[in-house]
Amino acid sequence: MPLNIRFMQRQDIPQVTVIDRDAFPTEWPPTNFPRELENGLAYYIIAYQPKNQDSPTTQKFSGKEKQPGIMDRIRKFFASPQTPPDDPQEDIDIVGFAGMWLMADEAHITSIASRKENRRQGIGEALMIAIVELAMAKQARIVTLEARVSNLVAQNLYTKFGFDKLGVRKAYYLDNKEDAVIMSTEYVGSPSFKEKFTQVKESYQQKFGVIHNEVAVKK
After folding, report:
1. Given CB 3.0 to 4.6 Å as the disulfide criterion, which of 82, 151, 163, 173 pairs with 183?
2. Is 74's pLDDT higher than 70?
3. What are the structural domains of the chain?
């Protein structure tokens, strides 16, 4: 199925919260997504696919899809022509999300995660591509983040995107006092970074296909 990326909206919060709690079960306090969506410094994006009718999230009853009841049919019959249809964006499976804060000329990635059953499918890479492109569109000079010192998989992904290790924040994570590695890009407008980023993006597209990135259009 095609992978789509757009800005997070309020109706996405329940699905995103499930992904967040599964990916970061010990994070405290948990991310307050309603507040983040009102934060003028914060930008959150989601990766999603059209809902698979055979997925466990499809509402079913006795092995069959739930049929509209008599009250549903009555409401539909008497509905005003001006009544807006159900938001089609709710009929999606969110498979990952990412967030960043933009402070002055620095874009700081606060979180990036994919749904447990959709990991190792390039979703993390797609989100990284989109969030870096968003940072560039917002005229950030650099992109920064922290990663657990034990999370070598994440560090390798970030290194692939041109992030370098700058230092360590001692006892950064509250759950177990684990240190965090501070990582940052060089100036994202430099020819060397653009060349590396283009190579990573082309490599992704050859392996997983083109990303339908609505974030790149709606700045």
Report:
1. 163
2. no
3. 4-58+91-213 (3.40.630.30)
